[in-house]
Amino acid sequence: MSSLLKQRLAYDATFDCVQCGYCLPACPTYETMESETHSPRGRINLVKMVAEGKAEIDDLREPIEKCLGCMACTTVCPTNVQYGKILESAQDVIEDSTEKRRSGRFVEDFLFNAFFPSTKWMDVLGNATWLFQKSGLDQRINDWDWLPLHLNEFASALPSIPSPKERKSRATRYVRTRPATAKVGFFKGCVMDSVFFESNQNTIELLLRSGAEVVLPESQTCCGALHGHAGKAEKAVELAKENIRAFEAEAFDYIVNNAGGCGAKLIEYPHLFEEGSAWKERAIAFSDHVVDISQVLVEMDRLTFTRPLEETVTYQPSCHMQHVQKVIEPPLAMLEKVPGLQLEELERPDFCCGSAGIYNIVNYEESMKILDVKMGDVSRTNAGSVVTCNPGCLLQMKLGIKREGMEDRMDAVHLVDLLMRAEPRMK
Predict the structure, then answer these.
(1) What pLDDT, on the 0 to 100 scale, is given for residue 147?
(2) Would you tell me which of 106, 275, 375, 383 could form a disulfide with 400, CB atoms 3.0–4.6 Å apart?
(3) Element containing residue 258 per DSSP (H, E)
């Protein structure tokens, strides 16, 4: 059994960790939980012990489930430990060993296999949210403490949703300038497109004003990040194949996304396939074209901003955008282009906000402790807006602002929405 576990648990990769402790100050859960088992090196050591038969899988479960997967440890690690590979292997083993009640398994199967990968279900989510807001119930939901998983708090932080008619009228191909400066395939995401539809539209508009032709492949689906983090490796591979096929239908200069977590998963597609396989090569060709919206706007450099924004902002980087995609400077470069805007940097921008996909839902208490640390840093800036590049971060920061009672003087905004407020036009 231990030899099989060694293969499944990325056992060989654990030896790259020399237990130096450089990861400890970078790890949010180590700071807030104050336990070695909730640090990267502690989790790696547990994985090694389970693979060697010196500990049980159940000993691994809680530390792994409480890991944010923010990958901040990988940035500071002096020996380049492949923590993401070790983490996902542990999640996969834990998932296979978990016995779930039939009702729980049904709900989970529906969410991961039917709900997130389905454009139709995402439309239902967007339409239902619009109806909920239109009815005025969103003004009363704060008092609905009976809702499970603190959903009343998260629902109150949602942005205004466009009507079903407006959402349905969106085209799948846009071009405004001939010849186009670039041909862009836009990865719209699942939750991003249903709940943050306006941010997606602003992304498309920024690309159009930069002179690009923008295409939204109709057969694209969920990126698979949530599935990978939940140990559902087979489904993550299936979704990767669907997206690769969808974007292979045309030749694109860029495959653009506007969600840090999604972009991180997209560029990691090659890791899902065996060396030398045809799918590996196709995944590499796909990921080589994947860029964040901030990257392509900086590279094309076709926008000038005509409306000064006389306000102070701070920037909360997405962990996966920073530590996996390695996209750090482009969002800051775009903020610098906006006249009148003052940027007050965080003291600890690398510290996670505690969103981490659905971590803040399934590990609410732990997530809020991490958020409270982040909000202490945010409050110090006295900014009027917190700028983010990821939907999960955006909702989490809105929730943090509400928890701190700062709604009257601060808001959270996606980078693309802020840029559109500055009225960009082509140079």
Answers:
(1) 63
(2) 375
(3) none
Q: Is the whole-model pTM more than 0.85? A: yes
Cis status, amide bond into 179, omega within 30 of 0: yes
> pLDDT at position 149, please?
59
Contact in structure between 165 and 130 (CB atoms under 8 Å): no
pLDDT-flagged residues of the chain (< 50): 1, 103
CATH number for the domain formed by residue range(s) 302-426: 3.40.50
**Which of 269, 243, 347, 260 is CA-nearest to residue 295?**
260
Give the domain ranges of the chain: 2-97, 302-426
pLDDT for the residue numbered 214: 98
Give the DSSP letter string of 4-73. Answer: HHHHHTTGGGGGG-----TTGGG-HHHHHH--GGGSHHHHHHHHHHHHTTSS-HHHHHHHHHT-----HH
Give the helix ranges, DSSP H, for 215-347: 225-229, 233-248, 260-267, 278-287, 293-300, 319-323, 329-336
pLDDT at 230: 78
Task: Please give the CATH architecture assigned to the domain spanning 2-97.
Answer: Orthogonal Bundle (1.10)
Measure Cα distances from 320 to 7, 58, 268, 306, 393 in Å: 26, 27, 11, 32, 11
Residue type, 143: D
